[in-house]
Amino acid sequence: MFSRFYPRLSIFRDCSVGMRGLPNYHLSCCVNTLLQTLSATWEVAALLEKWEAAGLRGDDRNVPLQLKRVLADMRGTQPQHAPHRDFLHCLHRNCIRLSTQHDANEVFLFILSFIQQQIDDKPLALEIQNLYKISMETQLQCLECNNIQSKGSYLLSLPLHIKEDHNSLEGCMASFFQHQELSGINCCFCQCCETKRPSRQGVRLRSLPRILCMQLKRFRNTLGSTRKLDCRVTFPETFDFSEVVPEALCRDFVQDNCSYTLYAVVVHSGTAMCGHYTAYVCVKERWYHADDSHVQLASWEEVQTTFGERYGRTAYILMYRRGSREEGHRRSDLSG
């Protein structure tokens, strides 16, 4: 979870795809990595461009406004040494401190939260949230009277538990949606029985988002000590949710397209107490590896080395886009 300062002598830029490296400024590799994934999520920038933010007070504290500016600068052609510095200081003013080591998934969710809080155009803010919104239904069935209680909720990132052994993304997703038996001290209150009863709890999907973000929970806290799991977790470049975990879909689930294509991977290197973040992003059918200010071409085979176990660099956050890669590129070209 921790950052490391990696000095770079120059900023790589590929003008044909708009890739820009970001210098490591006050242990900023975590935010640098997230900015690269957000830049590759062209839907966010396209929505922010619609936002008329003129006349806002305290714009140096407004995270979505600074995000809008830095994403535009990252796509621009003018050379800038640190186009993200104002964004970093803005996060600092919102308690995501500079010179402090952060967890990438927590910062990602904080940024999405700031967007909801600080954009004055609430319908547009909701559109951005809906890009990531995983709508769910939790069902609790009493094992005595079979009464079922249902409650709607949503997540913006799917947290997947991993075992200290070989894992697959498909297996982790299946485990997430497995029913759990709740008994003993975990018994739940049944409205029909009017007392606590053994229950069965399950989660089902009401709808899937355009951008499906999944966190591989590699960090474990035991007796106040945090350690990292470098065990192997394989993940596909494409998959169909309705085929991988069909049991996860509600009966009234109506979306036709459940196919997803990987376009960004947040990678953690090192241990829980001393590490570094980088990212792989796919832009116009080409994979790139962004390591602070250094960006270079990569391959799907190189992305696969982040499965874990042997290479020390392990995938931590996976971002998939619904639909085919070609469809995503066509829409990206139209938005630009």
> Which overall shape is indicated by the principal axes computed on the Cα atoms?
globular
The first-level CATH class of the largest domain is given as Alpha Beta
Low-confidence regions: 1-17
Helix content: 25-40%
Radius of gyration: 21 Å
Calculate the mean pLDDT score and round it. 88
CATH architecture of the largest domain: Alpha-Beta Complex
Order of helices and strands: EEHHHHHHEEEEHEEEEEEEEEHEEEEHEH
Keywords, separated by commas or semicolons:
alpha+beta; Cathepsin B, Chain A; 2 domains; 4-stranded antiparallel beta sheet; 336 residues; single chain
Explain this structure to me?
This protein is an alpha+beta fold. It folds into two domains: 21-131, Cathepsin B, Chain A, CATH 3.90.70; 157-178 and 209-324, Cysteine proteinases (Cathepsin B, Chain A), CATH 3.90.70. The chain is 29% helix and 32% strand. It is built from ten helices and 20 strands. The chain has helices spanning 29-40, 42-49, 63-75, 85-93, 104-118, 122-132, 169-176, 241-244, 300-304, 325-335, and strands at residues 13-14, 19-20, 134-142, 148-155, 158-161, 167-168, 180-182, 188-190, 195-197, 199-207, 211-217, 219-222, 225-228, 233-234, 238-240, 259-270, 275-283, 286-291, 294-297, 313-322. Strands 5, 11, 15, 16, 17, 18, 19 and 20 form an eight-stranded mixed beta sheet that branches. A four-stranded antiparallel beta sheet has the order 4-3-10-7, with no helix packed on it. α2 packs antiparallel against α6. It is globular. The model is unreliable at 1-17 (pLDDT under 50).
